[in-house]
Amino acid sequence: MTFDEALELVDDNVDYSDDHAFYRWYDLLEKLSEEYAPTVEMTKSEKNNILSSRKYGLSFINFYVDVMHQSTAIKFGAQTTPELYKSLSEEKLMRAWLHPKTIEVVEDK
Question: Is the CB of residue 52 less than 8 Å from the CB of residue 80?
Fold first, then answer.
């Protein structure tokens, strides 16, 4: 279950006659979401590249080395360049790799 799904569950099942209970649950889930599942902003191309690399069995370390330390390469039909991910830290890349649902697609960064 994602944090968004948990928020929906709280919204659907909390007794609204007790406003304080609803806001306490909602606030708790929002804080947990920010701490343990923050969103990673990236372009659609970056997201698709991560998803196809995972789909075809590439490990994160191989993906990271390909992306950060080599020149342009074509992997699984997706172009990979160091410039593609230059604005993302290793931690954010790994978070997106491990939990693709945390990826938020943006037009341009």
Answer: no
The three-class DSSP label of residue 83 is helix
Tell the residue number behind the tokens 């160091």, with chain if given: 82
Compare 22 and 99 and report the one with higher pLDDT: 99
Question: What backbone torsions phi and psi does residue 107 show, to the nearest 5 degrees?
Answer: -65, -60
Task: List, in sequence order, every residue forming a beta bridge with 40; answer none if it has no partner.
Answer: 103
Contact in structure between 50 and 67 (CB atoms under 8 Å): no
For the full predicted model, state whether its pTM sits above 0.70: no
Q: Which residue has the tokens 């969103």?
A: 39
CA distance 52 to 75: 9
Amino acid at position 84, single letter: L
Segment 28-56 mean pLDDT: 88
Residues sharing a CB contact under 8 Å with residue 3, sequence separation 6 or more, in sequence order: 29, 32, 33, 36, 37
Residues 6+ apart with CB under 8 A from 7: 26, 29, 30, 33
Residue of 102, 100, 104 whose CA lies nearest to 50? 100
